[in-house]
Amino acid sequence: MDTSAEREVAYAIEIDQSRGPVRVGEDWRFHSGDRCRILFRPGFDAYVYVVNRGPRQMAYQMLFPSDRIAARNPIPAGSEVRVPGAETAWLHMDEDAGDENLILIASTAPFAEFDGMAGEVGREDFEAKLAKVERKRRPASSRRFEDKDWVKLFAARGKEEIWRSCCGCRCCTNRRNGCGGEANLRVTRCRKKESSSYQ
Fold first, then answer.
1. Is the pLDDT of residue 91 over 90?
2. Where are the beta strands (DSSP E) in 1-126?
3. pTM reported for the whole predicted model
């Protein structure tokens, strides 16, 4: 397989434990009260967007770019970015169990559709914009694999590529949370429940 045209994006999940931050796999069980954060590391100069929508929410929340995070697009190749940005900031698992949608998008070029978005964006509006972007820039091929505590996604297409991760998340107290991969650059397929509140 010729991989010369591929570009890479890696991501990881950290949780806050008594002994400090710990990287966990996508099959980690999340519960109400847990605190976590997302890390991403593009292998190219990338324009990255991270959004989140809870199971009962009618709007997506823009987590990155954010005024609370010093890093700005484009993210230089090899740079590691934490969401939330501060060393002591975390996403907090709330009391509502259910599927959560966490989407990470990385591209070689900026998106006018997403630039300038801040705070909450209506579900229909965001999903229409996302569908438009994917029609224009979806890669012709993609693959993913786990490398220690990072999940790496590789994709290739002519002049412009888009990497999209979509995380179906669930929080529960007694059940094991399942997880699996999905094609077309849906990188993160962990089951967890997270709110985007900062602590």
1. no
2. 7-17, 20-24, 35-42, 47-53, 59-64, 81-83, 91-92, 100-107, 120-122
3. 0.78
